[in-house]
Automatic annotation (TrEMBL):
Name of the protein described by the UniProt record: Fatty acid desaturase
Family matches, as PANTHER family: SPHINGOLIPID DELTA 4 DESATURASE/C-4 HYDROXYLASE PROTEIN DES2, SPHINGOLIPID DELTA(4)-DESATURASE DES1
Domain of life of the organism encoding this protein: Bacteria
One family name in Pfam for this protein: FA_desaturase
A GO term, aspect molecular function: oxidoreductase activity
Fatty acid desaturase domain location: 69-300
Regions that span the bilayer: 44-63, 69-91, 103-123, 202-226
Length: 329
């Protein structure tokens, strides 16, 4: 691969700053950045223990409500929400900021990636592209188009595009080969490694299915697959709030939203509601984002109190857009 081609990948060679010159990080002083970017194993282990306990408690809630459908469905929603919020530690591990100890980041990252059907190494490179080209309509692989109608909004919430993309990744990585979009953020040097990881994941899933059939067990279905699916709309709602409706520009102070969430959600989502802060300084560990927020909040253009208010704003814009379109027809 030539030097120019190698430089075209996200986060490599600084090309992202030339194509999409991100602004905003300059509001974080070097002194403050040095103070906040210190990594430690302690906070990550504490958050992990709390998350595991939440999984156990909510899983027990599903167990004790078994046989009572009108109680078990809400219990599964709670349990499924705790499951899908493990996306937060997966995300932190991809940055290497969940723990100071490198192998802990890798171990937890691979475990959560497998349990949530996201190949870890694939996600790591894809997420690097998201940070390099945040809100670039063509180069940001995680950009969420603003919904053009209420039906489109609901489709995004339930994951109408998310699930095909997720399983498409597994299919292409294991059998068909990566598509052209994926090749823009996956250097050729890592594609075989990513493909092998995906194949190992699929072998694990096949083994779980075979074991479940052999033992006539519904454990995996009840305590993993169904709640994982039921909980996904909660994560879709949170992910939508991070950028949807913000500027599609390279200004990190305006293209990313911070949501002032309640303490329980901040705990289970590993402080990722402080999302603008994370994009401004992705090397700052999750446990220091609240302090970073205090430092940069006067400069942030998108700060909303609570996810319900975020979605009210998005829906209001959708309805105004539709109303305007109707009046011009």
């Amino acid at each position: 691969m030539s030097g120019n081609n190698a430089a075209s990948y996200a986060g490599i060679g600084g090309v992202g700053s030339q194509i999409w010159p991100l602004t905003g990080p300059e509001v974080v002083s070097r002194k403050k950045l040095k103070e906040l970017r210190k990594r430690s194993d302690g906070p990550g282990l504490f958050y992990l223990v709390v998350h595991v306990l939440a999984l156990i408690v909510s899983g027990l809630l599903v167990y004790v409500t078994s046989g009572t459908l009108w109680l078990q469905i809400p219990a599964m929603l709670v349990y499924g929400t705790v499951i899908v919020l493990t996306f937060a530690p997966l995300h932190e591990c991809s940055h290497g900021t969940a723990f100071k100890t490198r192998w802990l980041n890798h171990l937890l990252g691979y475990v959560i990636a497998t349990l949530t059907f996201r190949p870890f190494l694939y996600f790591k490179y894809r997420h690097a592209a998201h940070h390099t080209y945040t809100q670039h309509k063509d180069r940001d692989p995680d950009i969420v188009p603003f919904p053009h109608s209420f039906g489109d909004y609901l489709a995004q919430i339930v994951g109408a595009e998310f699930w095909p993309k997720l399983f498409g990744t597994l299919w292409r990585g294991s059998v068909a080969g990566f598509n052209e979009d994926e090749k823009t953020f996956l250097p050729e040097s890592v594609r075989r490694q990513v493909a092998n990881e995906i194949r190992l994941q699929l072998l694990f899933y096949i083994a779980v299915i075979v074991a479940s059939i052999y033992f006539s067990s519904t454990f995996v279905l009840v305590y993993w697959l169904i709640p994982r699916i039921i909980g996904e709309p909660v994560l879709r709602s949170i992910r939508m709030a991070e950028h949807t409706g913000t500027e599609e520009s390279p200004n990190l102070l305006a293209n990313t939203r911070t949501t002032l969430a309640n303490p329980i959600l901040c705990q289970l989502y590993w402080n990722m509601p402080y999302h603008a802060e994370h994009h401004l300084a992705s090397s700052v560990p999750f446990h220091a984002l609240a302090k970073l927020h205090e430092h940069v909040v006067p400069n942030l253009e998108c700060v909303t109190k609570g996810y319900i208010n975020v979605h009210r704003e998005i829906l209001a814009k959708v309805l105004r857009k539709n109303s305007s379109s109707s009046s011009t027809d």
